[in-house]
């Protein structure tokens, strides 16, 4: 397993930067080990795939989890506001970093992830090979 440490700064788009990082570093099977930081704007898809919500205020990133591969990334995020209220969902583009996001990524070099269309779900789903 190879690990990477990444720091994003003010105004960077969390999802776009992780997509670019995955491609630039040729990550075939990656995952997020940890992430701390803050967001000033978030766009999340809720549990019902048709509902997308925008949030604009300061949030702490309390969790970022998911898988990374050159075919695409699948990430879920939890965010906490100044009162400790937590929101979360599927990470979409337009989630903008506040002051920082410190991210540790693992590249699982013994595996290969791809995203293949699944007729049952209607989405490109994770396919795992060695």
TrEMBL record:
Gene3D superfamilies: Hypothetical protein, similar to alpha- acetolactate decarboxylase, domain 2. This is DNA-binding protein. It comes from Clostridium aestuarii. It holds the Pfam family PCC. The keyword Chaperone does not apply. One of its GO terms (molecular function) is DNA binding. Residues 1-129 form the PPC domain. PROSITE patterns: PPC (PS51742). Keywords: DNA-binding.
């Amino acid at each position: 397993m190879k690990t990477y440490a990444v720091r994003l700064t003010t105004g960077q788009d969390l999802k776009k930067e992780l997509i670019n990082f995955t491609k630039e570093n040729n990550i075939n099977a990656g995952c997020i080990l940890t992430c701390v930081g803050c967001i000033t704007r978030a766009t999340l898809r809720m549990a019902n795939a048709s509902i997308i919500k925008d949030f604009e205020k300061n949030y702490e990133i309390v969790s970022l989890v998911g898988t990374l591969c050159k075919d695409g990334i699948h990430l879920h995020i939890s965010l906490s506001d100044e009162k400790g209220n937590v929101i979360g969902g599927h990470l979409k583009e337009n989630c903008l970093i506040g002051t920082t996001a410190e991210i540790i990524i693992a590249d699982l070099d013994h595996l290969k992830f791809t995203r293949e269309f699944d007729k049952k779900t209607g989405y490109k789903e994770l396919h795992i090979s060695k």
